[in-house]
């Protein structure tokens, strides 16, 4: 990631304010949590920025994700940057609790940063990020895109990138792209797909025959117990709750996930959340949004969950499974099950964190429990 530092916030504020024809004090006063009456303007801004890609009920989605002045509603707070009655931009901020050994910190994850298209290039996005960091303390930016990567690189201190892995399910498109003769591509696809089915049969199904896996439609006390048993002091833990997972994974009006629970002897030993992602009009893949494993049953629980998820995806014609994480121990488990690393330019992590014992504790760890539920990707 480009690590060119931004100007100090005071200089950024002066430059942005000058471009907008206001004072830095006016600029700062206009950045605030959104109220209910801001929703129409936020919806209009998102139409302008997302354009033709906006093909869902965005009002229902925003009411699910953000509070808009109603405490306890939504997962996060939508902050708006205004100038008088004009909405200039927005950013979403979700509270998270981080634990690194004995050190803990209440932090925030940013998402959904957008500015009016005609204001691109004046530094407003950089200033909004700087102001949020100044006001909230420890702030994480998880993932990026072509529009946000530069802003994030100039505003935050880089953390190690997350890594993305894929497991092939169906080889038709893959072979068709590489072999010009149709009959040869079909034959190669059949051979490769059959080989992977046999691989999953021996390494997933047979190795996890003592585990029962079933879909979950509510997440309650047994999941809360699993979350407690999944904690590992050698990684940075992002706190989860059964209630929060249920709200995020099962009640997303835009792209709800399918949640699977693995049980051994009646006890829940694993959870996997998976969402369908469209690759184009005909092709789709499955994105693993979250994995929670009892630390005493990690390998067998993971194999059992993957056996069921891969079988469902294979039957429905998904091209591959994908998972993105930063946890070398868990990554090694996926790699042994034929998940292959796929370099990706936007699986970035960065943060702004005050110096102190918590920051040093995080630096001493090489793993996070953070998954794609903590990124914009859970939007669909």
Detailed description of the structure:
Helix 5 packs across helix 6 and helix 8 runs antiparallel to helix 11 (298-315). The strands form two sheets. Strands 1, 2, 3, 4, 5, 6, 9 and 15 form an eight-stranded mixed beta sheet that branches. With 380 residues, the protein is α+β, with helices and mostly antiparallel strands. The chain is globular, with a radius of gyration of 22 Å. It has helices spanning 9-20, 24-29, 39-50, 58-65, 124-136, 149-155, 172-178, 182-205, 221-229, 242-250, 298-315, 328-336, 357-363; strands spanning 31-33, 77-83, 86-100, 103-115, 139-142, 157-159, 163-168, 212-216, 236-238, 258-264, 267-278, 284-293, 320-325, 340-341, 349-352. The mean pLDDT is 91. Helix content is 37%, strand content 26%.
């Amino acid at each position: 990631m480009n690590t060119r530092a931004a100007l100090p916030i005071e200089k950024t504020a002066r430059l942005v304010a000058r471009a907008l024809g206001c004072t830095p004090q006016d600029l700062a006063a206009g950045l605030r949590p959104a109220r209910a009456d801001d929703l129409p303007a936020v919806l209009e801004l998102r139409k302008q920025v997302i354009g033709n890609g906006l093909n869902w009920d965005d009002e229902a989605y925003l009411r699910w994700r953000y509070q808009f002045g109603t405490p306890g509603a939504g997962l996060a707070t939508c902050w708006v940057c205004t100038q008088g009655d004009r909405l200039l931009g927005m950013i979403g901020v979700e509270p998270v609790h981080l634990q690194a050994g004995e050190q803990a910190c209440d932090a925030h994850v940013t998402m959904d940063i957008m500015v009016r298209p005609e204001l691109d290039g004046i530094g407003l996005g950089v200033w909004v990020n700087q102001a949020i960091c100044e006001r909230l303390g420890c702030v994480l930016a998880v993932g990026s895109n072509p529009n946000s990567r530069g802003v994030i690189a100039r505003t935050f201190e880089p953390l190690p990138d997350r890594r993305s892995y894929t497991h092939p399910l169906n080889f038709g498109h893959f072979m068709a792209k590489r072999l010009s003769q149709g009959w040869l591509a079909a034959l190669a696809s059949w051979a490769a797909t059959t080989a992977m089915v046999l691989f999953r049969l021996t390494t997933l199904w047979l190795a996890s025959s003592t585990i029962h896996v079933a879909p979950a439609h509510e997440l309650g006390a047994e999941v809360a117990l699993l979350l407690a048993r999944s904690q590992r002091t050698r990684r940075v833990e992002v706190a989860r709750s059964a209630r929060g997972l249920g709200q995020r994974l099962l009640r997303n009006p835009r792209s709800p996930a399918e949640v699977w629970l693995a049980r051994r002897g009646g006890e829940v030993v694993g959870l996997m959340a998976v969402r369908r992602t469209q690759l184009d009009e005909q092709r789709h893949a499955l994105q693993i949004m979250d994995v929670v494993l009892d630390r005493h049953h990690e390998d067998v629980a993971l194999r059992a969950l993957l056996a069921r998820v891969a079988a469902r995806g294979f039957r429905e014609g998904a091209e591959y499974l994908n998972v993105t994480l930063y946890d070398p121990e868990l990554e090694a488990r996926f790699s042994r099950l034929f998940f292959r690393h796929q370099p990706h330019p936007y699986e970035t992590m960065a943060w702004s964190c005050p110096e102190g014992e918590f920051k040093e504790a995080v630096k001493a760890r090489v793993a996070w429990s953070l998954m794609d539920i903590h990124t914009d990707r859970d939007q669909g």
